[in-house]
Amino acid sequence: MATIIVPKDFSPVEDAENIKRACLGWGTDEKAIISILGHRNSFQRKLIRLAYEEIYQEDLIFQLKSELSGNFERAVCLWTLEPADRDAVLANEALQKVIPDYRVIVEISCVSSPEDLLAIRRAYRFRYKNSLEEDVASHTTGDIRKLLVALVSAYGYDGPEIDEKVAHLEADILRDNIFGKAFNHEEFIRILTTRSKAQLKATFNYYKDIHGTSITKGLLVDHADQYLAALRMVIRCIGDPKKYFAKVLRYAINTEGTDEDALSRVIVTHAEKDLEEIKELYLKRNNVSLDVAVGRDTSGDYKAFLLALLGNDNNLHYQLTMSSFLSCIKRVKNKLKDSLLGRSTDNHQEFNLNLEDSISIDELDTIVDEEDEEDCRWSISQKESLFEETLEANFNYEGLGLLDITFFYVRLKSCGG
């Protein structure tokens, strides 16, 4: 299930114009770019890019590259590309590294459907004037070359049907090769690169049922062997891709300094597919939500963009930031002062939002004047209906009507983390 939140109605021309407007002047309005591109699906982004080129006679990607920088620029540009073109770019970047990153090639090959992989190969050939297979072969050697070339060249069956006899037979073949440490045997590579995902999953399950251990356990004989690591990755990507990507995210975040390339790659490529399930697995295995982990290990516009793709603004736990809290609190404080001016009753002297504490009028003055970030950050965990009722109960008196209550409620809902 996807995590991004997109509008039902949108205008690609209006979005293109707003993006252009965000890029004009002395500084770029990064928040405006995030609010648009971070909430548009692949089809909508394609229309925006076409509209932008039609209106301004330039590629939106070139404009974004010239205005943005760092990890934020890379993530936004990857996101703006069409999926097949994006994977082609990721594959090329992985191959151009001093030590080619075979993980990206394995992920693209094993997770993509046959039709998607064919589209990626076409996009790669159009963009780089070489075939993906050719570049993989020229940038790798030995057993990894055999494995990766076979993976990117594959166009297998993608249906759900399986042959149980074949699954039994090939589970035994894999077991014999592992037992004999013939990991580079042609049968090992043939099975992994030609069978359908459904057939391979059946084979892996039979292997575990018959031999009492997962197939990857038999490939742990040498942790430094890159070929064996690639084999394990292929099996994990095919066997349980969501679990695999949850683990990639954990390593990316827990790595000293954070692996932004891996973090961006997984979030950008899965936000429209299955990132919701990956998030659930991440939470289950790490006891912290992916949103919180990303927010803790990233910063600035890059953080804001990733959180938008994660669907963070659909979270019912509203974290009020300094500026948004002060903006709405000043308005309500003034309304409260006006309504209480000249009144002798004390029962309305508390500004109670049913949070952890009540806030008096004097305390509001202190908060607004001092602009203490820690004091101004609130976490609202009440359900929407309960919170709305609480606001009505605490504000429903002469001088502060339902319109103001609604205003404040909407302001709270619009505040992002």
Q: How would you explain this protein's 3D organization?
A:
Mean pLDDT is 81; it is low at 314-329 and 339-417. Helix 1 crosses helix 3. The protein is built from 23 helices and four strands. A hairpin with a 7-residue loop joins strand 2 (350-351) and strand 3. The chain has 417 residues and is mainly α. It has a two-stranded antiparallel sheet with strand order 1-4. It has helices spanning 12-23, 30-37, 42-56, 60-67, 70-80, 83-96, 102-111, 114-128, 132-139, 142-153, 164-179, 186-194, 197-211, 226-239, 241-254, 260-270, 275-286, 290-297, 300-309, 322-340, 361-370, 384-395, 402-414, and strands at 318-319, 350-351, 359-360, 379-380. The two termini are 22 Å apart.
Largest sheet: 2 strands, antiparallel
Shape: elongated
Cα end-to-end separation: 22 Å
Tell me the Rg in angstroms: 27 Å
The number of helical runs is 23
Oligomer: single chain
Q: Kindly name the structural category.
A: mainly alpha
The strand count comes to: 4
Write down the secondary-structure element order: HHHHHHHHHHHHHHHHHHHEHEEHEHH
How are strands sequenced across the largest beta sheet?
1-4
The percent range for strand residues is under 5%
On the 0 to 100 scale, the average pLDDT is 81
Give the % helix: 55-70%
Low-confidence stretches: 314-329, 339-417
Task: Explain briefly what this protein structure is.
The chain has 417 residues and is mainly alpha-helical.
Question: How are the elements arranged and paired?
Answer:
Elements: H1 12-23, H2 30-37, H3 42-56, H4 60-67, H5 70-80, H6 83-96, H7 102-111, H8 114-128, H9 132-139, H10 142-153, H11 164-179, H12 186-194, H13 197-211, H14 226-239, H15 241-254, H16 260-270, H17 275-286, H18 290-297, H19 300-309, E1 318-319, H20 322-340, E2 350-351, E3 359-360, H21 361-370, E4 379-380, H22 384-395, H23 402-414
Antiparallel strand pairs: 1-4, 2-3
